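Each field is listed here:
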Amino acid sequence: MIKQKKYCLTLIVIFLTLITNAQSLVNQYDEAGKRDGLWSKNFDNTTQPRYEGEFDHGKEIGLFKFYTLKQGKSVLSATKQFNKNNDNADVTFFSSKGKKISEGQMDGKLYVGKWLFYHNKVDAVMSEDFYNDEGQLEGKKTIFYPIGKIAETSHYKAGKLNGVTEVYAETGVLLKQYTYQNDELHGAAKYYDANGKIAAEGVYQHDRKHGIWTYYLDGELEKTIDHTRRSQNPKQ
């Protein structure tokens, strides 16, 4: 009986030692005072984790998990898979219910490269965006209906709309086609009805209709309006 008690006591001591040693390996600093090894932080005055991951002499490496508090419990809000050779990370954001919101790559706090954003109530992609190294929208942006069909395409340069934008009905019919320049409607524009027939066409200058616009009813010419004076004198 005495030997059995000593054996149990020894196991308890070993177990407590292992726990102490494991805890001592978390949240450590290197000789330069930089975070090194496994780290985990809780929300203030709670035992609920705020984030957890690994540092290599101050640099995030591997997989990090970030949480938000929901009814006093930690819920996963984002994951970041860091690249050891630079500041880029493959990032996924989640809703409080665990649904994927968006995913792509970040350079520090900047969105870079291709990003996918998802619809709120279904798993389908809502938009496909591209960002330059400055974190600005660059190139083609595509918005999708929940059923997967294209709702809108547009083009960006340094974060501003530039080029042709097209808007589609859920049936696939083209509804609008207009041109942007430096984030303003500027250039040719066409509008179509639900059957794809031309409804109006003309030109914009600096977000205002300009010159002769032609209007149609059921694809047939209905009227023309000169918007030149209106664009030059917006109060008229």
